[in-house]
Amino acid sequence: MIGQKKYFNNLEEFLDTSLQSFQVLYIDLNNQRQLIGDEGASSLGSGLGKCSNLSNLILYLEGNQIGDKGTLSLGFGLGKFTNLSNLTLNLGLNEIGAIGALGLGFGLGKCTNLSNLTLDLGWNQINDEGASSLSSGLGNCTNLSNLTLNLSKNQIGDEGASSLDSFLGKSTNLSNLTLYLKWNQIGAIGASGLGSGLGKCTNLYNLKLNLDNNQNKRYQQLKLKCLKSKRLVALEIQYW
Protein backbone atom coordinates (compact mmCIF):
# COMPACT_ATOMS: atom_id res chain seq x y z
CA MET A 1 0.00 0.00 0.00
CA ILE A 2 1.41 3.40 -0.97
CA GLY A 3 2.19 5.58 2.03
CA GLN A 4 3.18 2.83 4.47
CA LYS A 5 6.41 3.15 6.41
CA LYS A 6 8.61 0.06 6.21
CA TYR A 7 11.71 -1.01 8.10
CA PHE A 8 14.16 -3.69 6.94
CA ASN A 9 17.34 -5.12 8.47
CA ASN A 10 17.63 -7.95 5.97
CA LEU A 11 18.57 -7.38 2.33
CA GLU A 12 16.81 -10.44 0.93
CA GLU A 13 13.58 -9.55 2.69
CA PHE A 14 13.66 -6.09 1.16
CA LEU A 15 14.31 -7.38 -2.34
CA ASP A 16 11.37 -9.80 -2.04
CA THR A 17 8.80 -7.05 -1.41
CA SER A 18 6.68 -4.99 -3.76
CA LEU A 19 9.23 -2.23 -4.16
CA GLN A 20 7.04 0.29 -5.97
CA SER A 21 4.78 0.73 -2.93
CA PHE A 22 7.13 2.62 -0.61
CA GLN A 23 7.10 6.33 0.09
CA VAL A 24 9.02 6.10 3.36
CA LEU A 25 11.75 3.49 3.71
CA TYR A 26 14.25 2.64 6.47
CA ILE A 27 16.93 0.02 5.76
CA ASP A 28 19.50 -0.76 8.46
CA LEU A 29 22.31 -3.08 7.34
CA ASN A 30 25.02 -1.61 9.56
CA ASN A 31 27.79 -4.02 10.56
CA GLN A 32 25.94 -7.15 9.57
CA ARG A 33 27.37 -10.51 10.61
CA GLN A 34 27.39 -11.34 6.90
CA LEU A 35 28.72 -8.24 5.14
CA ILE A 36 26.89 -7.37 1.93
CA GLY A 37 29.97 -6.21 -0.02
CA ASP A 38 29.82 -4.92 -3.59
CA GLU A 39 27.49 -7.69 -4.73
CA GLY A 40 24.91 -6.94 -2.07
CA ALA A 41 25.22 -3.18 -2.58
CA SER A 42 24.64 -3.67 -6.31
CA SER A 43 21.49 -5.71 -5.64
CA LEU A 44 20.33 -3.07 -3.18
CA GLY A 45 20.93 -0.29 -5.71
CA SER A 46 18.94 -2.17 -8.33
CA GLY A 47 16.08 -2.71 -5.90
CA LEU A 48 16.05 0.88 -4.71
CA GLY A 49 15.82 2.07 -8.30
CA LYS A 50 12.38 0.48 -8.48
CA CYS A 51 11.06 2.48 -5.51
CA SER A 52 9.84 5.29 -7.73
CA ASN A 53 7.52 6.81 -5.11
CA LEU A 54 10.08 7.37 -2.37
CA SER A 55 10.06 10.71 -0.59
CA ASN A 56 11.99 9.71 2.56
CA LEU A 57 14.88 7.24 2.73
CA ILE A 58 17.11 6.19 5.61
CA LEU A 59 19.88 3.81 4.59
CA TYR A 60 22.54 2.54 6.99
CA LEU A 61 25.35 0.58 5.32
CA GLU A 62 28.30 1.24 7.62
CA GLY A 63 31.12 -1.30 7.74
CA ASN A 64 30.03 -3.58 4.90
CA GLN A 65 33.18 -3.78 2.71
CA ILE A 66 31.46 -1.80 -0.04
CA GLY A 67 33.83 -0.51 -2.72
CA ASP A 68 33.52 1.48 -5.92
CA LYS A 69 31.49 -1.11 -7.80
CA GLY A 70 28.76 -1.33 -5.17
CA THR A 71 28.69 2.43 -4.66
CA LEU A 72 28.28 3.02 -8.38
CA SER A 73 25.16 0.84 -8.33
CA LEU A 74 23.80 2.66 -5.30
CA GLY A 75 24.38 5.97 -7.06
CA PHE A 76 22.52 4.72 -10.12
CA GLY A 77 19.57 3.72 -7.93
CA LEU A 78 19.54 7.05 -6.13
CA GLY A 79 19.47 8.84 -9.47
CA LYS A 80 15.90 7.63 -10.02
CA PHE A 81 14.50 9.31 -6.89
CA THR A 82 13.15 12.47 -8.46
CA ASN A 83 10.62 12.91 -5.63
CA LEU A 84 13.03 12.32 -2.75
CA SER A 85 13.04 15.15 -0.21
CA ASN A 86 14.74 13.56 2.83
CA LEU A 87 17.77 11.27 2.68
CA THR A 88 20.02 9.80 5.36
CA LEU A 89 22.81 7.68 3.86
CA ASN A 90 25.54 6.14 6.02
CA LEU A 91 28.39 4.57 4.04
CA GLY A 92 31.11 5.07 6.63
CA LEU A 93 33.85 2.51 7.25
CA ASN A 94 33.76 1.04 3.75
CA GLU A 95 36.23 0.94 0.84
CA ILE A 96 34.91 3.72 -1.39
CA GLY A 97 37.34 5.56 -3.63
CA ALA A 98 37.19 8.16 -6.40
CA ILE A 99 35.07 6.10 -8.81
CA GLY A 100 32.49 5.29 -6.15
CA ALA A 101 32.31 8.96 -5.14
CA LEU A 102 31.78 9.84 -8.80
CA GLY A 103 28.81 7.46 -9.06
CA LEU A 104 27.36 8.67 -5.79
CA GLY A 105 27.71 12.30 -6.83
CA PHE A 106 26.02 11.55 -10.15
CA GLY A 107 23.07 9.90 -8.41
CA LEU A 108 22.66 12.60 -5.78
CA GLY A 109 22.79 15.22 -8.50
CA LYS A 110 19.58 13.77 -9.90
CA CYS A 111 17.78 14.18 -6.56
CA THR A 112 17.00 17.81 -7.20
CA ASN A 113 14.09 17.93 -4.73
CA LEU A 114 16.23 17.07 -1.71
CA SER A 115 15.77 19.48 1.16
CA ASN A 116 17.36 17.45 3.99
CA LEU A 117 20.49 15.35 3.50
CA THR A 118 22.73 13.49 5.94
CA LEU A 119 25.62 11.81 4.12
CA ASP A 120 28.29 9.90 6.03
CA LEU A 121 31.33 8.85 3.99
CA GLY A 122 33.84 8.92 6.83
CA TRP A 123 36.69 6.39 6.95
CA ASN A 124 36.83 5.56 3.25
CA GLN A 125 39.44 6.15 0.53
CA ILE A 126 38.06 9.25 -1.18
CA ASN A 127 40.76 11.52 -2.61
CA ASP A 128 40.67 14.98 -4.20
CA GLU A 129 39.21 13.63 -7.43
CA GLY A 130 36.44 11.86 -5.55
CA ALA A 131 35.65 14.90 -3.42
CA SER A 132 35.44 17.05 -6.57
CA SER A 133 33.04 14.59 -8.23
CA LEU A 134 30.86 14.48 -5.13
CA SER A 135 30.82 18.27 -4.94
CA SER A 136 29.83 18.51 -8.58
CA GLY A 137 26.81 16.29 -8.00
CA LEU A 138 25.74 18.03 -4.81
CA GLY A 139 25.86 21.32 -6.68
CA ASN A 140 22.66 20.27 -8.45
CA CYS A 141 20.81 19.90 -5.13
CA THR A 142 19.96 23.57 -4.94
CA ASN A 143 16.91 23.03 -2.72
CA LEU A 144 18.93 21.77 0.24
CA SER A 145 18.14 23.56 3.48
CA ASN A 146 19.75 21.14 5.97
CA LEU A 147 22.99 19.28 5.26
CA THR A 148 25.28 17.11 7.36
CA LEU A 149 28.29 15.86 5.40
CA ASN A 150 30.96 13.64 6.94
CA LEU A 151 34.16 13.18 4.92
CA SER A 152 36.45 12.52 7.87
CA LYS A 153 39.44 10.18 7.59
CA ASN A 154 39.72 10.10 3.81
CA GLN A 155 42.52 11.30 1.52
CA ILE A 156 41.28 14.82 0.80
CA GLY A 157 43.79 17.63 0.31
CA ASP A 158 43.64 21.24 -0.80
CA GLU A 159 42.16 20.52 -4.23
CA GLY A 160 39.32 18.43 -2.81
CA ALA A 161 38.51 20.92 -0.06
CA SER A 162 38.57 23.81 -2.53
CA SER A 163 36.16 21.96 -4.82
CA LEU A 164 33.50 22.35 -2.14
CA ASP A 165 33.52 26.06 -3.02
CA SER A 166 31.56 25.52 -6.24
CA PHE A 167 28.97 23.33 -4.50
CA LEU A 168 28.52 25.63 -1.52
CA GLY A 169 28.31 28.65 -3.79
CA LYS A 170 25.15 27.19 -5.31
CA SER A 171 23.63 26.26 -1.97
CA THR A 172 21.89 29.55 -1.34
CA ASN A 173 19.00 27.89 0.49
CA LEU A 174 21.15 26.19 3.12
CA SER A 175 20.19 27.24 6.64
CA ASN A 176 21.90 24.50 8.69
CA LEU A 177 25.25 22.96 7.73
CA THR A 178 27.46 20.49 9.60
CA LEU A 179 30.68 19.56 7.83
CA TYR A 180 33.19 17.02 9.16
CA LEU A 181 36.58 17.05 7.42
CA LYS A 182 38.86 15.89 10.22
CA TRP A 183 41.80 13.54 9.61
CA ASN A 184 42.50 14.62 6.02
CA GLN A 185 45.39 16.59 4.45
CA ILE A 186 43.80 20.01 4.09
CA GLY A 187 46.19 22.94 4.22
CA ALA A 188 45.91 26.72 3.94
CA ILE A 189 44.87 26.71 0.27
CA GLY A 190 42.10 24.19 0.84
CA ALA A 191 40.83 25.99 3.92
CA SER A 192 40.77 29.27 2.00
CA GLY A 193 38.74 27.73 -0.84
CA LEU A 194 36.38 26.14 1.64
CA GLY A 195 35.93 29.47 3.41
CA SER A 196 35.13 31.20 0.13
CA GLY A 197 32.34 28.72 -0.51
CA LEU A 198 30.95 29.01 3.00
CA GLY A 199 30.92 32.78 2.65
CA LYS A 200 28.52 32.43 -0.29
CA CYS A 201 25.94 30.57 1.83
CA THR A 202 24.22 33.80 2.70
CA ASN A 203 21.19 32.20 4.36
CA LEU A 204 23.10 30.07 6.86
CA TYR A 205 21.81 30.21 10.42
CA ASN A 206 23.90 27.42 11.93
CA LEU A 207 27.34 26.22 10.85
CA LYS A 208 29.46 23.53 12.48
CA LEU A 209 32.82 22.77 10.88
CA ASN A 210 35.29 20.16 12.17
CA LEU A 211 38.83 20.30 10.76
CA ASP A 212 40.70 18.41 13.48
CA ASN A 213 44.05 16.90 12.50
CA ASN A 214 44.62 18.66 9.20
CA GLN A 215 47.59 20.72 8.03
CA ASN A 216 46.34 24.29 8.35
CA LYS A 217 46.52 26.35 11.53
CA ARG A 218 45.36 29.71 10.14
CA TYR A 219 41.71 29.17 10.96
CA GLN A 220 41.01 32.79 11.90
CA GLN A 221 40.91 33.69 8.18
CA LEU A 222 38.45 30.85 7.59
CA LYS A 223 36.26 32.12 10.41
CA LEU A 224 36.19 35.62 8.95
CA LYS A 225 35.04 34.29 5.58
CA CYS A 226 32.27 32.28 7.25
CA LEU A 227 31.03 35.39 9.02
CA LYS A 228 30.08 36.92 5.67
CA SER A 229 26.78 35.10 6.08
CA LYS A 230 24.76 37.93 7.61
CA ARG A 231 22.10 35.62 9.07
CA LEU A 232 24.56 33.35 10.85
CA VAL A 233 23.50 32.84 14.46
CA ALA A 234 25.67 29.90 15.57
CA LEU A 235 29.22 29.25 14.35
CA GLU A 236 31.45 26.44 15.63
CA ILE A 237 34.84 25.64 14.11
CA GLN A 238 36.75 22.78 15.71
CA TYR A 239 40.44 22.20 15.10
CA TRP A 240 43.61 21.16 16.86
From TrEMBL:
<dbReference type="InterPro" id="IPR052410">
    <property type="entry name" value="DRC5"/>
</dbReference>
<keyword id="KW-0206">Cytoskeleton</keyword>
<protein>
    <recommendedName>
        <fullName>Cyclic nucleotide-binding domain protein</fullName>
    </recommendedName>
</protein>
<dbReference type="InterPro" id="IPR032675">
    <property type="entry name" value="LRR_dom_sf"/>
</dbReference>
<dbReference type="GO" id="GO:0005856">
    <property type="term" value="C:cytoskeleton"/>
</dbReference>
<dbReference type="InterPro" id="IPR001611">
    <property type="entry name" value="Leu-rich_rpt"/>
</dbReference>
<keyword id="KW-0963">Cytoplasm</keyword>
<dbReference type="Pfam" id="PF13516">
    <property type="entry name" value="LRR_6"/>
</dbReference>
